[in-house]
Amino acid sequence: MGDLAKIFKAYDVRGVVPDELDEPTAEAVGAAFVEVTGAQSVVVAHDMRESSPLLAEAFIRGARSRRADVVHAGLGSTDLLYYASGSLGLPGVMFTASHNPARYNGMKMCRSGAVPIGGDTGLTEIRDRAAELVGVTATPSGSVIEKDLLQGYADHLRGLVDLSGIRPLKVVVDAGNGMGGHTVPAVFEGLPVELTALYFELDGSFPNHEANPLEPQNLRDLQRAVIDSGADLGLAFDGDADRCWVIDERGESVSPSAITALVAVRELAKYPGATIIHNLITSLGVPEIVREHGGVPVRTRVGHSFIKAEMARSGAVFGGEHSAHYYFRDFWFADSGMLAAMHVLAALGEQERPLSQVVESYSRYHASGEVNSAVSDQAEALRRVREAFAGRGEFDELDGLTVSGSGWWFNLRASNTEPLLRLNAEAADESKMTAIRDEVLAIVGKVSE
Q1: Confidence class of residue 417 from pLDDT cuts 50, 70 and 90?
Q2: DSSP classification of residue 366
Q3: pLDDT above 90: residue 437
Q4: C-alpha span between 350 and 363 (Å, rounded)
Q5: Which residues form the Alpha-D-phosphohexomutase alpha/beta/alpha domain (predicted)?
Q6: Most buried among 73, 148, 234, 390, by the most CB within 10 A?
């Protein structure tokens, strides 16, 4: 039996197969999901991991045992599952462990219309009910319909961003043996794009590199291919293809903050005066640029459930995170790396400049990137940092500790899942950013010694 207490996280389910997550557990979660949500029908999709089809089938048995009908979409990206939930008006479950290593798997759950299910919106109840149902068998009575949704997904995205009139572009895509290898060919079909495909073979053992574009070493093959082929840009997707990282024509990374600002400007051109969401560790340039283009920036905590909840509350048209998650009102307030990539292709292909010049105006500050420190006494480390910076800037504690001064800021916050403190720092001057970063890390390091 799996370990329900361990695998149910704040936003999803994730654990090692079969030690923490096995088929009886998935079956119990399927039954509990139907009971808690009251769903009469459910849509299910899964990624390319070896364990995904069997876990999905087990979940389906559990859902059917509670008389729910199931639309089985088969292989898909997480944003394809959101498309399915939104377009079919059904609650849904995606079997994936995103960028985690091959031995992991998990579930991302949503209500009808791709509304996320998190710890405070039903996930805890599903966990508790599943614990009661493990090992309880019932005859499946609901029906199963297999439905290929890939073409509908691709058509929907192409209807949101028109790429038919862009200039021809050379694009390298690294799918990392993940679900981008399944979705990119369908979305790019017929577009004026010369595609170079890296690691499009679906392989949940990730034989080439981890499907996590946030780690620089996983981008090296893509960067080399962009330079060697003279491509206009490169795109890297994570395992379930809901995140997208962008590489310019020089082989340099484009920060997700710059992509957030770029897409925000495009969405504001479509929806003047609209609200744009950004989390508190995106660049200061994001709210500045949003205001300059007549939009209303709203700052939130880190995490997709906070972003999606604030988007729904405010009616925001777009939201971006430092982690390369991008959220769209026109996509049921859900995140889609593919849709963000299409906005980048449109912005580049509608004019003649190279991508490095296009994004230059959206990159105003020098950022540290996220620096993680293992700290056993996180509260003491935060206390010492507060003390050291007292009187030197404005403090806020929306999510961890943020200290802001003239042209600089940093945020230090605890990981939800590990004994880590995560530091992000930014300044208009690179030497100032470096000094702030190193000072905070020195204080944190003394606590961990």
Answers
A1: low
A2: E
A3: yes
A4: 20
A5: 6-130, 152-251, 259-365
A6: 234
What six digits make up the tokens of 95? 């079997």
DSSP 8-state class, residue 121: I
Burial class of residue 131 (count of CB atoms within 10 Å of its CB; 0-12, 13-18, 19+):
middle
Residue pair 333/314 in contact by the 8 Å Cβ criterion: no
Q: Is 98 a catalytic residue?
A: yes
Question: At which residue do the structure tokens 């009616």 appear?
Answer: 315
Separation in Å, CA 195 to CA 152, 198, 231, 342: 21, 10, 9, 14
% of the chain beyond a pLDDT of 70: 99
Closest-CA residue to 145 (of 202, 78, 88, 83): 88
Q: What is the pLDDT of residue 128?
A: 97
Mean pLDDT of the chain: 95
In the 8-state DSSP scheme, what is residue 331?
Answer: G
Longest dimension (CA), the chain: 66
Q: What average pLDDT score do residues 160-172 get? A: 96
Say which of 41, 98, 257, 323 is annotated catalytic: 98
pLDDT of 1 reads 61
Q: Give the chain's domains with CATH numbers.
A: 4-148 (3.40.120.10), 152-250 (3.40.120.10), 256-360 (3.40.120.10), 366-448 (3.30.310.50)
**In the predicted structure, residue 416 carries a pLDDT above the cut 80:** no
**449 falls in which pLDDT band (50, 70, 90)?**
low
Model confidence at 201, in pLDDT bands (50, 70, 90)?
A: very high
Question: What type of residue is 213?
Answer: P
Cα distance between residue 433 and residue 407, in whole Å: 10
- pTM value > 0.85: yes
DSSP result, 208-245: SS-S-TTSGGGGHHHHHHHHHHT-SEEEEE-TTS--EE
pLDDT value at position 302?
Answer: 87
Least confident among 1-10, 154-163, 164-173: 1-10
Helix (H) or strand (E) holding 397: none
Residue with tokens 């606590």: 447
Cα dihedral 245/251/257/258 (nearest 10): -120
Say how far apart CA 274 and CA 315 lie, in whole Å: 8
Category of 406 on φ-ψ map: left (φ > 0), alpha (ψ -120 to 50) or beta: beta
Q: What is the DSSP letter of 293?
A: T
For 335-358, b where at least 16 C-beta lie within 10 A, e where not — what string?
A: bbbbbbbbbbbbbbbeeeeebeeb
